[in-house]
Amino acid sequence: MSYQVKTDQELVHLYIKGKELALSELIIRHKSRIYTSIYLLVKDEYLAEDIFQDTFIKVIKTLKAGKYNEEGKFLPWVLRIGHNLVIDHFRREKRNPTITNSDGFDIFDVLGIYDESIEERMVKQQTYDDLKKLIHLLPSEQKEVLIMRHYGELSFKEIADLTDVSINTALGRMRYALNNLRKMMTAKELTLKN
Amino acid sequence: MIEISTPTSDSVCNDETDGDSMFSNFSKSEVEFYESIKAPLNSLVKEPSKEVIENVLKFSKNYT
Predict the structure, then answer these.
(1) Does ipTM exceed 0.90?
(2) I need a surface site. Which of A77, A91, A127, B20 has the fewest CB within 10 A?
(3) Which domain, by its residues, includes A170?
C-alpha cells in the first residue's frame, strides 16, 4: 500500500520500525503548515528554515528513541516543538518578534494571479502585503492562535494544550485577533477581493 | 492610532469539550470576516527549501 494513503500514526509506526520513506511522506504532508507557522512568527526565511530543521531533528531523535507519546496527534506535536524552539530563539535574542523587519518576501511567489492585469495584480499584492503587516501588528499571543488555527488547522483544544492556556482563553485570543484585524483593516480602508 | 484590544475575560463560550466545533460560537460577522481573509492568509503559505528537507532526511538516515 502506498505511503500516501496511510495515516500519520501509521507512518510514525513505520518510521520507528526503520522505514525512512515514512518520514519523507510525513514531511511532504505537513511541511507547508509547519514552515509557515514558524515563518510567520519569526518573519525571516533563513531563520525559519533553521528552526524547521531543528524541529525535525528533535522529532527524529524522539521517535528513534521510542519516546513519542502515542496519545497526541503528530502535527500538533511537531508544531509544539517548533513553537518551543521559536520561543527559545526569542529568549536567546531577547527581542520582540513583532518589531523585526520583514525579509524579502515576494508575494508573486505564492499568488496564483498571473492571468490578472498588472494593475489588478499590483493592487492585490499591496492588499495582501498590507494584511501580512497587520497580522504582525497583533499581540503575539493572538497572532500565535490565528497562525495555529489557520495554518496548523489545530482545534482550539490542541492550541490550548500547546500554549498552556484554557480553551476559552485560546478562543478569546482568536476572537480578539479577528476583531483587531478587522479594526485595523477598517482604519486603513483595506478591502479584500478574493 | 489604532487601538488593539486584548482579552480581559476568558468567557467566550461554555463548551470546554469539543475543540473543533467552537467556531460556531463566534458571531456571524466574526465568522464572515474570517472567511473573507482565508484566501489572503492562504496566499502567505510558504515552503521550506528542498535543501532543508534533504538535510533533515540525511540526518535521519545517519542517526542511530
Answers:
(1) no
(2) A91
(3) 106-194
